[in-house]
Amino acid sequence: MSAASGSEPVGLPDQRRWFALALLAIAEFVVILDSTVINVALPSISRNLHVSTDALSWVVSAYILAFGGMLLAGGRLADLFGRRRLFVIGLSIFGAASLAGGLSTSIGELVACRALQGLGAAALAPAARSILAVLFVEGAERTKALGIWAAVAGSGSVAGLILGGILTSAFGWRSVLFINVPTTLALAVLASRGIRESRPNVANRSIDWAGATLVTTGILSTLYALVCANAAGWGSTQTVGLLSLSAVLLAGFVLVESRVAAPLVPLTIFRQRHVRAANVAMAATAAAMVGLFFVLNLYLQEILGYSAIRAGLSSLPLGLLLMGAAGAAGPLLERIGTKAVLISGLGLFTVGLAWLARIPLHGSYMSDILLPSLPIGAGLGLIFVAITSESVAGVHADQTGLAGGLINATQQIGGAIGLAVITAVATSYTSGAAHRPANVVHGFQAALLVAAGLAAAAMVLAAILVPAREHMAPPATATTHTPAHAPA
User: Fold this and answer.
1) Mean of pLDDT values over 268-282
2) How many whole angstroms separate alpha carbon 23 and alpha carbon 5?
3) For residue 368, what pLDDT is reported?
4) Whole-angstrom Cα distance, residue 119 to residue 142?
5) What own/partner pairs with CB < 8 Å and gap ≥ 24 does 56-59 have?
6) Residue 397: is its pLDDT beyond 70?
7) Quick check: 381 and 151 in contact, CB under 8 A?
């Protein structure tokens, strides 16, 4: 395989590339899992550290803010200074923060460690996507790799619910953090030896500090406003002020990037139709998916009375369908094209959410949970592979890390918007004395219908924005991709 075809260093053995893919997929799995596994442990953390619900929410929010806020910077740094280097650095930060978080004795320490975890994730996640994009040539080989990637990584959210319940019940809440330590250590060591360094051969490697500061603070301000919107009020001075500040910061970022010689985010990436389509679809899909898991977990535990472990295990069929569909999506991309696969997946996801929105007060797992979960799981598997493929289609080698950071950032922002909106809808039925089980269920039904509407909107947008199937030449990389060989 030649460098011109968009591959990783010339002569890299086939088995080494697939071994590298396994490392990358497991790392992405850990990052996604960690965003959900902690949710199951929150009640135990509250009891052990004696904290209120408001303070406890920052255990989740700190991770989201740091992860989402730093993704674009992390992706671009991977392109400039080495993808493997940023991947290993991110793993090291993530593992060290997990160890420190497990040893925390106060909520302040734990929140700080969760923010550091998010910082590590923001370095490793876009670097992993970038390495994947240069390891496998665009076409049949890449779609096969994407299917494996999405099958492993995409199941992280469901696995987090199951593993969180098991670990918390058996070993306590600290175990959900400690488990990351040996995993990230092993991945960092294996990646250092099993993945060769790669970075584009660009003349100017200076860091655009002004652009990095503006985009990071702009995204952070947006995420913070959304995370706190339900508590502060959507029309409050805080929410409106933060969102206005975000708009000013991001406008300043665009102005800076259009004028500097070496921009953090070359604005030309937004001219690529594939990149625009993938990020729009990801934002709406992430909003619907995060809302789905939020509502489903509450319904199972608060209404049906499931334990944390049973609630997690009830999501296992959805996870298995997701993995199976992701594995099948690679050949489908080659056969019918990305657009058809993405629209089909979003259609299944929409149908499943609308079906699940019929959940009754006295529900049955088989008819009210399991059956709607089948199209949801299958749809998500197709969606993840199609969006990942679309997000890097035609992207030049010197921007693959940036493209990875961009799609990850979009996922975080979309998820934050979805959680804020769907939480507001779900709780609007239970104010004051109306907090009765029947009203709670009505709120859940309305929230799931909103999620279904978001998925349907993503399907329509995909039909409009995603280019029809085309035969694209792989991105030119022969003159821009300079490998630095790792130890054998």
Assistant:
1) 86
2) 23
3) 93
4) 28
5) 56/107, 57/227, 58/107, 58/111, 58/114, 59/107, 59/110, 59/111, 59/114
6) no
7) yes
* The two structure tokens encoding residue 336: 């019918």
Q: What is the dihedral of CA 132, 215, 184, 100, to 10 degrees?
A: 180
CA dist 280 and 271 (Å) reads 14
DSSP state of 271: G
d(CA 395, CA 477): 10
Q: How far apart are CA 486 and CA 38, in angstroms?
A: 35
Beta bridge partners of 483: 198
Residue 405 has pLDDT above 80, yes or no: no
Dihedral sign from CA coordinates of 429, 454, 312, 58? negative
Confidence of residue 182 (pLDDT cuts 50, 70, 90): very high
Q: How many Å apart are CA 84 and CA 486, to the nearest integer?
A: 10
**Which residue blocks in 136-208 are alpha helix, DSSP H?**
140-153, 156-171, 175-178, 180-194
Q: List all residues 6 or more positions away from 347 whose beta carbon is below 8 Å from its beta carbon.
A: 379, 459
* β-sheet bridge partners, residue 197: 484
Of 88 and 160, the one with more pLDDT: 88
Q: By the 8 A CB rule, do 71 and 405 touch?
A: yes
Question: How far is Cα 441 from Cα 443, in angstroms, rounded to an integer?
Answer: 5
Asked whether the beta carbons of 476 and 2 are under 8 A apart, the reply is no
Beta bridge mates, 198: 483
Residues 6+ apart with CB under 8 A from 86: 74, 77, 78, 123, 124, 126, 127, 401
Most confident of 71-75, 171-175, 393-397: 171-175
Residue 110 and residue 101 in contact, taking contact as beta carbons nearer than 8 Å: yes
Is the C-alpha dihedral spanning 89, 74, 396, 199 positive or negative? Answer: negative
Phi/psi zone of residue 393: left (φ > 0), alpha (ψ -120 to 50 degrees), beta?
A: beta
Check whether 379 has a pLDDT greater than 60.
yes
Query: What residues form DSSP beta bridges with 484?
Result: 197
Assess whether pLDDT exceeds 50 at residue 472: no
Over residues 186-224, the pLDDT tens digits come to 999 999 888 888 766 655 566 778 888 888 888 888 888
Within 8 A by CB and 6+ apart from 297, the residues are 39, 161, 311
**pLDDT at site 456:** 96
